[in-house]
Amino acid sequence: TLNNLALLYSDTQRMREAEQSCAEAMETLTPLWQANPLVHGDQWGRCCGFWARLQIEQEKPADGLCALLTEALAFVYNPQLRVAIQGMMERLNCPPPTEDQP
Predict the structure, then answer these.
(1) Which end of the chain has fewer CB within 10 Å, C or N?
(2) Are 34 and 74 in contact (CB under 8 A)?
(3) 34, 42 in Cβ contact below 8 A?
(4) Would you say 62 and 92 are in contact if contact means Cβ atoms under 8 Å apart?
(5) In this structure, which long-range contacts are made by residues 24-27, counting pairs with CB atoms below 8 Å and at least 24 apart in sequence?
(6) What would you report as the CA-atom Rg of the chain, rounded to the nearest whole angstrom?
(7) pLDDT, tens only, 26-35
């Protein structure tokens, strides 16, 4: 998948290509996730989490990452993925999800 390709690029320090592949993965997955979040929630969460990780590792501005991770967390079902996203949110000092968010 594109997200796996982005991981490979990241592992080989090809960050521009990693960002491009990750962005393309998110663009491709967004309509699928919006149409059926129960099926695509974990995959969407992995993409969001990896995008956030890329931004953090490159010390880029974190604008919008908290909102993106909070949205992803609302639809992620895999417990390990939820913990990873929550860890990134803590690292970014994101506010905790409100009561109307899971």
Answers:
(1) C
(2) no
(3) no
(4) yes
(5) 25/1, 26/51
(6) 13
(7) 999 999 989 9
What is the spatial distance between Cα 80 and Cα 73, in angstroms, rounded to a whole number? 11
Q: 30 Cβ partners below 8 Å, 6+ apart?
A: 44
**What is the Cα 87 distance to its own chain's centre?**
12
pLDDT 10s digits, 29-72: 999 989 998 899 999 999 999 998 888 888 888 778 999 899 88
The model carries a pTM of: 0.82
| Contact status, residue 41 vs residue 76, Cβ threshold 8 Å | yes
CB 58 within 8 A of CB 67: no
